[in-house]
Amino acid sequence: MEVTDKTFKQEVENYDWVVLVDFWGSWCPPCKTIEEVIARLEKEVDVKICSVNVNRNPITAKKYDIYGVPTLAIFRNGKEEERSVGSVTEGQILEMLERANK
Amino acid sequence: MACINAKKTCWNCPAAKFKGNVDFTACGQSRNIEAENAQIMIECRRRPGLGHFEPTITFEDCPEWEEGDYGYMLKNMKVMILGIDGYLGWALALKLGKLGCKVSGVDNYWRRDCVAEKGSHTVVPIERMTDRLHAAREVHGIDINFRRIDVMDRDKLREFMDEVKPEAIVHYAECPSAPYSMVDAKHAIKVQENNVLGTLGVLFIMKDIAPEASLIKLGTMGEYGAPLTGRPLFEGIFPSDAALEWKGRKWSLGGELTPRDPVSFYHCSKVQDTFNVYEACKYWWLRSYDIMQGVIYGVHTDEIATDPRLKTRFDMDEWFGTVVNRFVAQAVLGMPLTIYGRGEQIRAFIALDDAMQCMVRLIFSPPEPGQYDVVNQVSGLFKVSDIAEAVARVGKEKFGLEIKIQRIENPRVESEKHPLEVVSKKLPNEFGFEQGVTLEKEVERMFEVLLQPEVKKRLEEKKHTIMPKTRWSGMKKESGTLEVYEPGSKEKEGFEGVLRRGA
Ligand SMILES: NC(=O)c1ccc[n+]([C@@H]2O[C@H](COP(=O)([O-])OP(=O)(O)OC[C@H]3O[C@@H](n4cnc5c(N)ncnc54)[C@H](O)[C@@H]3O)[C@@H](O)[C@H]2O)c1
């Protein structure tokens, strides 16, 4: 789901299990290519997935020091636990989720 | 399907002017968000009464966007065509004008001059610009705001852009010829200067004058080359599941530009453009579709067909004629169709009318701020020898012409036998493009036009410009004939092109 500066707290920070957050930018070609993988994973895996457009949601982007996009981050009980910056394959995302679900 | 762009929002709309604390460089390259509570607001140039608001209105909810044949269309959209006097520019100007766009355009007659320099001419006669504009007004009721400007003259172009304030800019104004760029140093430098520096100037002007307009920039499928490994030619950018493996390690290539392997100094100019446009989007938040266009063929769009004064140019000489157009011209002249080398080169093609449809769709679904995207604008892959067969078949069946095919020495340096797999998914799936013209249908229309006595006479006059004399090696020598054969007499061999259009 798409979250914004307004909804980030409620959807990610106050969520009490694992969330995968995809920070992306509309200008960023790798983000565009990951978009379709994220859309597919949202249907296929049993983990909450949120997308934050960093250009439209600068407050969240600043708060979490998103210095490059795409950034994929795992939040557990509202705390960031792991992040990966730059493009990743679907397999690498699945590995991240596996670690998070342990 | 018609409303494919219904859910796009102010983010995509060129009328949205960003206000407030927007620092688009916040991510990626550098970070400095000035205000703690930066809220992104816009002001709508078309509806100033709305004041400042968040950019979330969809095209379907905005009264400035109206439903039409190509999805939602921005009312009276201001489109500027650079290179409006050209083969494609003129056809697009009429199509957009008919759709209600406010069309403006510039041209310095570069193309007319280069063709004259080479001692050739367009075989379909075209009017002077003033007469074209007059006819467009008379026949279609279209007012085109034309200015004779060299794109390299940045001051003049800037002034005109400032006056027009375009909402989309189609950039056709480059030399389109590979052989012309291979004649000698003077020609190669002229082409690269005009194309690369012209485009670089356009980017700087857009940054100052029209940063919200989309730039629809013409590249070519020839930027990619034809890799012998048969790896697919993706749409400019690797998909997310592409990866680089090396010594047991693995990295995603998703989102990175795919390799380019241009096939002439002209094609090199297009590759340089690709990088310049890509960077400009990154640095200044320009937005662009870079179009890797297949080779164009044909003579027809509904708008140019209505009146002889509205025809677009048609060239068949060795420098400016594209292959299908050349074959039909040769067939009309009773000359064996000239295949270069083995003739098993596979290339990507699209008919004039279909290319125009694609352009309209891209114009009405603009990218977002900072977005650089690449589309492969292609409707079919054909082997050169198969095109010759198709032209011979149509010529014989519909017009009773006896046509032979000849293989001649290849003036180019290129592989003459190779696989080719092309991905072209975005136009059909994201923009609603539907192919309307088959090769055979358009070839038939071309015969009809070229067989007219006046056109045939103009063909005869320039027959000597057909055989290639410009070799990639630098040698100046006309290509000799290797073999002449009857259509249908050869066994099929080699590779077949694979075009991937599915979702
Ligand atoms: N025709 C094709 O098969 C094909 C295929 C792929 C890509 N393209 C690209 O599409 C674009 C249009 O192609 P076309 O076939 O219409 O070519 P064209 O030569 O007919 O059109 C280009 C127009 O731009 C003008 N122009 C060139 N330099 C200029 C300058 N410095 N200032 C002002 N005007 C200038 C020319 O006079 C001409 O009218 C080109 O960029 C070409 O590379 C064409």
Structure description:
The complex is a heterodimer of chains A (102) and B (503). Chain A is an alpha/beta fold. Helices cover 39% and strands 27% of the residues of chain A. Chain A has a five-stranded mixed beta sheet. In chain A, strand 2, helix 2 and strand 3 form a beta-alpha-beta unit. The longest helix of chain A has 16 residues. The radius of gyration of chain A is 12 Å and the shape is globular. The longest helix of chain B has 25 residues. Chain B has two domains: 73 residues, no CATH class; 425 residues, NAD(P)-binding Rossmann-like Domain (Rossmann fold). Helix content of chain B is 32%, strand content 20%. Chain B has 503 residues and is of the alpha/beta class. In chain B, helix 6 runs parallel beside helix 7. Nicotinamide-adenine-dinucleotide binds next to helix 1, strand 7, helix 2, helix 6 and strand 10 of chain B.
CATH class of the largest domain in chain B: Alpha Beta
Main beta-sheet annotation of chain B: 7 strands, parallel
On the 0 to 100 scale, the average pLDDT of chain A is 92
Bound molecules: nicotinamide-adenine-dinucleotide
Order of helices and strands of chain A: EHEHEHEEH
Domains counted in the coordinates of chain A: how many? Answer: 1
In total, the number of strands of chain A is 5
